[in-house]
Design goal:
By secondary structure, the chain is α+β, with helices and mostly antiparallel strands. It has helices at residues 21-28, 61-69; strands spanning 2-5, 11-14, 46-47, 50-51. The longest helix is centred in the C-terminal third of the chain and has 9 residues, at 61-69.
Length: 70
């Protein structure tokens, strides 16, 4: 996993692993926060009659890292 935390307190990460929302919430939570909202989505188990086994997201890693750092 690649993690980037900047001077403004922003946190970015690229991972090939499952995202654990609870761990992520703990990682970014600060004492000044009043609330934390986590959005998770459940997809249908089929798409056009075929079983859905997983979701895949793609990015150009080098470009994403460059954008994160700017």
């Amino acid at each position: 996993m690649l993690e980037i935390a900047d001077a403004k307190g922003n946190y970015y990460a690229l991972t090939r692993d499952r995202i654990d929302a609870c761990s992520l919430a703990e990682r970014i939570r600060q004492d000044i926060d009043g609330a934390l909202v986590v959005f998770e989505y459940i997809v249908q188990n089929n798409n056009q009659g075929k079983s859905v086994l997983c979701l895949e997201y793609e990015c150009q890693e080098e470009l994403a890292i460059q954008v994160f750092r700017n």
